[in-house]
Specification:
- By secondary structure, this protein is an alpha/beta fold.
- A five-stranded parallel sheet has the order 4-3-7-8-9, with helices on both faces.
- A hairpin with a 2-residue loop joins strand 5 and strand 6.
- Helix 1 crosses helix 2.
- The chain starts with a strand and ends with a strand.
- 33% of the residues are buried.
- It binds inosinic acid and magnesium ion (MG).
- The site of inosinic acid has 18 residues, from strand 7 and helix 3.
Length: 176
């Protein structure tokens, strides 16, 4: 059990499982894009651990850069669509792989894909560390999924509760 601000969280997914699924995702990406010089686009802040561990498993030419975009305030998704900041590359003709910590309603990803398509990339794919299938509120295709999780509030491995709890190596769920 860990305490994050005023809430208690219990372990849900251990580091070893996360790392094993990241290796699988890296192999899937290599199969599709190993000879296509992909551009990874990490969505800060939550993705920093997933992006770091995934990149250590990628052994072919690629670039990585980061953008900011968030739709959460406290425990509830605001659903509010925010603009992307920080795209510092020309995406024309590039195979873009968005890296996310978690897909919940899917609205963030849906909006981000639409925004990125305007920059004329060769393709846009999504790789997410975790996915809450029961929370999905839109028609969204996820190309690479690490771990499917229940529709509960999680912290750890980059995921935060009001900015705290990102530092844990395992993923925790809000205690009932
Ligand atoms: P979506 O637009 O509802 O799919 O929300 C995606 C964003 O909400 C993610 O990038 C996370 O930053 C945040 N998020 C969703 N679920 C959780 C959670 O359980 N814990 C912490 N952040 C979450
Ligand atoms: Mg996020």
């Amino acid at each position: 059990m860990i305490q994050v601000l005023d809430k208690k969280f219990v372990p849900l997914i251990k580091e070893a499982e996360i790392q094993q699924e990241i290796k699988r995702v890296a192999a899937e990406i290599k199969h599709d894009l190993g000879d296509k010089n992909p551009l990874f686009l990490g969505v800060l802040n939550g993705v920093f651990m997933f992006a770091g561990d995934l990149m250590k498993e990628i052994d072919f030419p690629c670039e990585i850069t980061f953008v900011k975009c968030s739709s959460y305030a406290g425990l509830i998704s605001t659903g509010g669509v925010k603009t992307l900041i920080g795209i510092d590359r020309d995406l024309t003709g590039r195979h873009v792989v968005i890296l996310e910590d978690i897909v919940d309603t899917g609205l963030t990803m849906k909006n981000m894909i639409a925004t990125l398509q305007q920059a004329n990339p060769a393709s846009v794919r999504v790789a997410t560390c975790t996915f809450k299938p029961e929370s999905l509120q839109c028609d969204l295709h996820l190309d690479y999924v690490g771990i499917k999780v229940p529709s509960k509030f999680l912290v750890g491995y980059g995921l935060d509760y009001n900015g705290y709890g990102r530092n844990y190596r395992d993923i925790y769920v809000l205690a009932e």
